[in-house]
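Sanity check

After download, print the first record. It should look like this:
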Amino acid sequence: MLRGGNLMLPGNTGEQGSPDAETPRKLADKGFNGVRLVLFFDRLMPTPGIVDEDYLAEISDAVAGYRDAGVYVLLDVHQDEYGPAVGIRGLPAWATFPGEYEPLRLPFPAGYFSDPAIQTAFDNFWRNHPVPGAGAGVQDLYIEGAAALAARFRDEPAVFGIDLMNEPFPGTRCNQPDPRSADCPELEKELLAPFYKRAGEAIAGVAPRMVVFVEPFMLQGALGVPVATPPPGVPAKRGLSYHQYGTLADIRKRGNEFAMSSALATGSAILNTEWGFTNDPAVWTAQAEEFDALLIPWLAWTRGPFAPIVDERMPAAGNDNREATLRALARPYPRATSGTPLSLAFDEGTGILDYHYTTAPVESALLRSDITEIVMPSPNFPAGYTVEISGGGATVVSEPNAAVLVVRAADNAGEIHVRAVRRGVLAGLPPVVATTDPYTHLAASDGVAGADRKALSTESMVGDLLADPRARAILEREVPDLVNSPQIGIGSQMSLHELQRYAPGLLSPQVLEQIDRQLAGLQP
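Expected structure tokens:
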């Protein structure tokens, strides 16, 4: 099982909280064992058909640091609103064909839903638009670049996979943040299936041990609509990477269940590679518990850079309540199980971990060890823990209060129950601070650590408004149907003002103005 976060290359973000040489060790010291390394295609292939070897060397240096710290790496070929020529970051200008449209530069993520330049660029990616002078289409060259990235790390033990494309978007079709119109299984077959098949086969040809992770369309995780993601053309090394930003618990529940069903149907390893994006510790804890219940591994996306969450030397850089966030994320988990996991639960308040597994292997698998390793992160167990084990002949073989609890059980021992209980009482946390500054990816990519703190307003993100009890009370009074609407699923990264254009029936301009006046009366 993997637990960790999303990180950029050291020094590449230009903002506070950029990873440095100490980040891998700090990450491992807090109990995390995985990162999704965010990379960009415009740097990987700045010229059509020519891979930048200096960029590969930069990636290699970063991977070596994580390897030395015992942290596994997923290589993420990332895009946000296609690329800087029309949107934010991702594909280069030579791969961007927006037709007749000039980019509107709307706040993220509204460009996906309202900017014809971004939508048309995606249409032309799926059509494999010819790249002038290259003798190939844009999709052909993208696959070539992804395969070159995989080939570079095919023998690197720390790199377990490649995330082919972050949050692919369908283009001019099926593009509204409304669950009634965002369920497009026919486009998954038409657009994603051939791309994933070709890319999977190309990567398997040069890096046969690498797991190829593919993603559903970006709205599916946010809105909790069904997921029917076609697998890559690598039957033995398939992975499903999905994201979960639902503000409401029932939307998150559907999203997790749909992703799990898709992974099981295609024989894919499931991995949540983005979730959270909040400064509300209660939301972090609730979502972490939901993943535990389904035994889903994850790599979180924090509100600010992930590095300051694990490194107290760094400024918080947008991570309000980072001590509470760390405690919510640094939960105990079985990183390796000799057998089949059955259930996992951790109560952050009481410090009680319950883990059940059976020593019987999953079907057609062979056990390579009789050892089960459970990570006991120091933020939740600073003074150690006590252990009780029930089940046939299982014993603890690690030192008392070790950072990794090691249990040995014979392969015929049957079901094992491990209960670990925190020693002592955790130190108190600073008061929770309500996040009130609007956030955009444009600000982050331009090197701005965060906007000046402002009062809550309709320019604040819906997720922030719902996290503040005073603002939530205003919304529940003025727009109760909106608060409980499935369309709130995308609200974690959208302002209330921006959401109005997609939910005009629930949020009229007059109501928006009335809400704004009431929010203005609240103190920052």
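If your output differs, re-run the checksum step. Summary of this record's structure: The domain at 3-321 is CATH 3.20.20.80 (TIM Barrel).
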